[in-house]
Every structure is written in structure tokens, then in C-alpha cells.
Design brief:
Elements lengths: L12 H12 L6 H8 L4 H15 L3 H8 L2 H10 L3 H14 L5 H9 L3 H15 L3 H8 L2 H12 L10 H14 L8 H10 L2 H15 L3 H8 L2 H15 L1 H13 L6 H11 L4 H12 L3 H8 L2 H11 L4
Helix pairs in contact: 1-2, 1-3, 2-20, 4-5, 5-17, 5-20, 6-7, 6-8, 6-9, 7-15, 9-10, 10-12, 10-15, 11-12, 11-13, 13-15, 14-15, 15-16, 16-17, 16-18, 19-20
Length: 316
């Protein structure tokens, strides 16, 4: 369930565009107005505002925001104003072609999305950056990690709840034979099953594996695989089961200890606000016995803090 708070009576997109233009005028930017408008409009409404702004002022609102805002507030806002596919494509491009290659972020984005989301994201990546996502992955990755990313992007999967019990049993048995039962690991079996299975089928495999071999499939992955390949498999499995629990853990890791991983905090906040942030907040509270909003409040400041809390939602 989304956490986005939208006014019961919306301002027309043209009026929002005018208000934003006024916020940019003069010395400095009225960041409060910018946040009050854009943090409380859904994806379709934001797209209309961008369209109206360009029609009225012959300027791209995205680029105007980039010149008016700064720091983490700017980074978060520039992702937020994009549509979901454009946002994922931008995160991937930055992870694969930025100053520092971030393969874990690229793996997380790919392995946590549904087949339909991936198809739209690939098309958007090609249109926005002029090259195929698969090409950039091939250039930046290798081995089994590369194989699972390319297969997960390319293999069609059912998104429904249907499960074939006999196929589940066979796949659980094959994973056991490919891992714990033998010396070494047959990575090809793990790649095939994890990239061809629907989320419902994979969850059923994990349950059958536990029942048949008295060991969790997740523990098997941790003992039989390593590195980014292991991270990809675990991300697929965890997001098949409970995506909200997965992202609650990402947020917790981003904010625990000294310093904050603002990139991870921004990535999850802006990509999940319109998807399942209320569930993520509940999972965070259940797991870590604290409030996600309070954690964000303590780890951030200023306009950046206000913007993230507007998306995630303050505790009432």
C-alpha cells in the first residue's frame, strides 16, 4: 500500500506549474513550496505538471529543479519527478556508468522488479540513454552474476498465483541435487529455476525445500554461492516472498551505525512510496521495534528530511 498523501481536492497542473515557477524566482529557491507541491502529487499528476511547465515557460522542469536544489534534496527530487520506469532506468544507468560502478544497486533494482516492470524499464533505458540495458550489464559484469541478470531480464515469467505442486517438488529436488547433495555447485540449475519461476512458484519451492530437507533455501544459497551472484539470488527469493520485509532491511542497513547511505535511503523511499511503503513501515516496526519515520528524522536534516518524510509519511 502506498504512503503518498495527495490532497482531496487537487490544484490544476497549470496552477502548480505557476506556483513552482514563482518558487524559483528571486534570490534562492522556496524549497518548502516545491516540496509541498511535488511530494503530494502522484506519478500521473507530476507528469502533467512537467508538461504544463514546459508549455508555459519553454523550459524543462527537471533541469530547473537541478539548478535550484542541491545535495541530497536535489538527488531525491530529481528521481521522484520521473515516472517509475524512468526512475529505475536512471538508477541503473548511474549504477552501471557512474563514476563508481555499483553492481549491488543494479542487482537490487533488476532482481526486485516484476517482469512487466522490467520490460517497460528496458524500453525506457534504451530511449533515455541510447543503448540497451543488456549491453551495459555485459560490459560491467561477468560470470554467473552476469548470467543471472541477463536471464532475469530476458526470460518471461508468469505474474499470477498459479502453482503446479509436482513442478514445485521437482524444482526443489533439482536445487538440492545442484547444491547440497554434490561437491561443488551447479550454478546453471539455480539460474534456470530462479529466472524462470514466478514469485508464487519460487515461494512454494522454498517451502517445499524446507519441508523435504529440513533446511531453508536461503541458508543453502548462502552456503553454496558467493558474491553478487548470491546477492542476486537472495534478492529474487526475498522479494518473491515479502518485498516489504526486504526493503525494510535495506532501509535499516542504510541508516544503522556511523553515517547514512543516502543513496540507498533515497532509492527505496522514492521507488516504493507509490508501491508498498506502508507495508515497509509495518515490517520495519515489527523487525526493528522502532519507527521508520523517526529513524529517517534522526538521520537527515533540512529540506531533505522534510521531503523524505512527506513521501514516507510521518507517524500520527
Amino acid at each position: 500500500m502506498a504512503s503518498l498523501s495527495v490532497p482531496p481536492v487537487l490544484t490544476p497542473p497549470r496552477d502548480d506549474a505557476v506556483a513552482l515557477h514563482k518558487a524559483f524566482k528571486g534570490f534562492g529557491c522556496d524549497s518548502t513550496t516545491v516540496t509541498n507541491i511535488l511530494a503530494h502529487r502522484d506519478s500521473a499528476q507530476r507528469a502533467l505538471i512537467l508538461h504544463e511547465y514546459k508549455a508555459m515557460y519553454h523550459q524543462d522542469l527537471y533541469h530547473r529543479l537541478a539548478t535550484e536544489l542541491s545535495g541530497n534534496h536535489k538527488n531525491a527530487m530529481l528521481l521522484w519527478v520521473l515516472d517509475p520506469a524512468g526512475r529505475d532506468a536512471t538508477i541503473l544507468n548511474q549504477a552501471l556508468n557512474g563514476d563508481i560502478t555499483d553492481l549491488r544497486t543494479a542487482t537490487e533494482v533488476i532482481c526486485s522488479r516484476t517482469p512487466s516492470q522490467l520490460q517497460i524499464m528496458k524500453q525506457t533505458y534504451r530511449a533515455r540513454f541510447g543503448c540497451y540495458l543488456e549491453h551495459d550489464i555485459t560490459e560491467r559484469t561477468y560470470g554467473d552474476h552476469q548470467k543471472i541478470l541477463l536471464a532475469y531480464l530476458g526470460v518471461p515469467r508468469n505474474e499470477g498465483p498459479e502453482v503446479d505442486p509436482s513442478a514445485v517438488t521437482n524444482d526443489a529436488r533439482e536445487l538440492y541435487r545442484a547444491g547440497e547433495k554434490r561437491v561443488g555447485t551447479d550454478e546453471r540449475a539455480f539460474i534456470r529455476i530462479f529466472t524462470e519461476s514466478s514469485r508464487a512458484h519460487l515461494v512454494s519451492i522454498a517451502n517445499a525445500y524446507q519441508h523435504m530437507y529440513a533446511r531453508s533455501l536461503e541458508k543453502t544459497l548462502k552456503s553454496e554461492t558467493t558474491g553478487n551472484f548470491q546477492f542476486g539470488l537472495l534478492t529474487i527469493l526475498r522479494c518473491a516472498d515479502t518485498p516489504a520485509k526486504y526493503f525494510a532491511k535495506v532501509l535499516h542497513k542504510a541508516m544503522k551505525g556511523l553515517g547514512t547511505s543516502n543513496a540507498a535511503l533515497i532509492r527505496v523511499a522514492v521507488t516504493r512510496t507509490e508501491v508498498d511503503m506502508k507495508y515497509i513501515k509495518a515490517e520495519y516496526h515489527n523487525k526493528y521495534k522502532g519507527s521508520l519515520a523517526e529513524a529517517i528524522h534522526s538521520e537527515t536534516s533540512g529540506n531533505y528530511r522534510t521531503f523524505l518524510l512527506s513521501l514516507v509519511g510521518r507517524d500520527r
